[in-house]
């Protein structure tokens, strides 16, 4: 009798896990469409952010007191660009 209960529990766990792993069952993933243009724009944004972070790192090592404004500029832009990109994405999605 215990084996039957154990078998039932195992079957229900496998069924629940299979439902969780199926991405077609989630409404959020079905509503998002990734066109080639969207993917290209995302790739360009990621590359831009990586270049910006790299420039910030390089300017941190090479900045002298006379030109410290360059480091401050890159540091501010490293924060501002992603925030503005997020705002624009949310604005144009609707």
Tell me what you see in this structure.
- The protein folds into 2 domains: 1-32, no CATH class; 34-94.
- Helices cover 83% and strands 0% of the residues.
- The protein is built from 4 helices and no strands.
- The protein has helices at 2-21, 27-31, 36-62, 68-93.
- Helix 3 (36-62) packs antiparallel against helix 4 (68-93).
- The longest helix has 27 residues, at 36-62.
- The chain is elongated and about 80 Å long.
- The model has no long low-confidence stretch (mean pLDDT 77).
Element order, helices and strands?
HHHH
Largest sheet: none
Percent of residues in β-strands: under 5%
Rg, Cα atoms, Å? 24 Å
Terminal residue distance? 56 Å
Number of domains: 2
Give the uncertain stretches in residue-range form.
none
Features:
single chain; 94 residues; mainly alpha; 4 helices; 83% helix; 0% strand; elongated
């Amino acid at each position: 009798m215990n084996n039957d209960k154990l078998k039932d529990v195992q079957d229900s766990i496998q069924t629940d896990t299979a439902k969780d792993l199926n991405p077609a069952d989630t409404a959020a993933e079905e509503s998002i469409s990734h066109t080639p243009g969207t993917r290209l724009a995302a790739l360009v944004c990621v590359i831009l952010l990586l270049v910006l972070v790299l420039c910030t790192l390089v300017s941190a090592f090479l900045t002298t007191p006379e030109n410290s404004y360059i480091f401050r500029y890159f540091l501010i832009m490293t924060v501002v660009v992603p925030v503005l990109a997020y705002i624009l994405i949310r604005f144009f999605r609707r």
